Amino acid sequence: MEIRDLQIFLAVADEGSITKAAEKLEYVQSSISIRIQQLEKELNTTLFRRGRQGVQLTTSGEALRSYAEKIIFLTHEAERVVADNTIPRGPLRIGSLETTAAVRLPYILTDYLKAYPEVDLTLKTGTTEELIHFVLKYELDGAFVAAPVEHAELDITEVGVEELVLVSSGQFAPFDHPEQLRNLTLLVFRVGCSYRRKLEDGLHAKGIIPARIMEFGTLEGILGCIHAGLGVSVLPRSVVERAKVQYQLRSQDIEDKFYLTPTLFIRRKDTYKTAAVSEFIRVSRDRFN
C-alpha cells in the first residue's frame, strides 16, 4: 500500500465518483479504477459499492478512510517537522468565523505576514461547529471559534473576548423589553453558529419565540438586511461599530454577562506545534484587542 493509493482512495471517497476523482487528481479514469481495484485486492476487501449514481464506501471503506486521513496527515506533518526551525515558513491553514475575519483578522494577518513573509497562509470561514469539524479532520491547522468549546482532542487558547449587542436598523426605536422581539424576524448565520445559539437560547429562556428566522451565509447579507429593516440580530460590538460607516444600524447593550463571548483559537493536541502556528497564536493574542 502506497501513500498515493491512499490519496486516490480518499479522493474517490470525497467525490463519490471515480470520474470526478480522476478530474480532481488529473488522472485518466481507468488509472483510478485500476489503483482502487489493486488496493481492494491487497486488502482482500471491497472498499466501495458501485452504482449508477457513483460510489459509496462500504463498512471496510469507512474504516480505512479514518486511517488513511491520519496517515496522509502524518506524512505531511513529518515533512513539516523535519523542515521546521525557529523561523515560521511553509503552509498554514487557518479557519475563522465570518465576524472575526471581517474585523479582527485584517490586522492580525497584516502584522503576521509582514513579519513572516515565507508563510503560505490560506483562510477558510465557517461556523463554530464547521470549523471544529475541519480541525478535527486535519483539514485546518487551527481556527478561531466562539466559546464555549470542550473537546478532549483540542488544544484551546483564548485570544480575546467579544461583547455581543442587539443590532437593528436605525429606523427602529430602541427596544425596552425582550418581548418586543417576539414579532420580529431574526437574521442569523446558519445552524452551528455560537452567536445564533446564544440568541436563541436567551429568547427561549424568556419564553419568546420569534415570528421568523432567516439564515444567511455571509456577514454582509445579515448587515444589509438589518439596514433595510428586515429584522434584528446579535453580533459583536466590534463588527457593528465598523459596519456603521456603511450601514444605518442601531446597537443596544445586552446586560446579561452571558453575551460576553470569548474567541478561542483551537488546534488538535496530537499535531506538532510549528513555529508558524506558535507565532500566529502570539500575534493574534497581541492584536485581538
Concise synopsis of the structure shown:
This protein is 45% helix and 24% strand. It is α/β, with parallel strands linked by helices.
What does it look like?
With 289 residues, the chain is of the alpha/beta class. It has 3 domains: 3-82, Arc Repressor Mutant, subunit A; 88-161 and 262-288, D-Maltodextrin-Binding Protein, domain 2 (3-Layer(aba) Sandwich), CATH 3.40.190; 162-259, Periplasmic binding protein-like II (D-Maltodextrin-Binding Protein, domain 2). It is built from 11 helices and 11 strands. The strands form 3 sheets. Strands 3, 4, 5, 6, 9, 10 and 11 form a 7-stranded mixed β-sheet that branches. Strands 1-2 form a two-stranded antiparallel sheet. Strand 7, helix 8 and strand 8 (212-216) form a beta-alpha-beta unit. Helix 1 (3-15) crosses helix 2 (18-25), helix 1 (3-15) packs across helix 4 and helix 6 crosses helix 11. The termini are far apart.
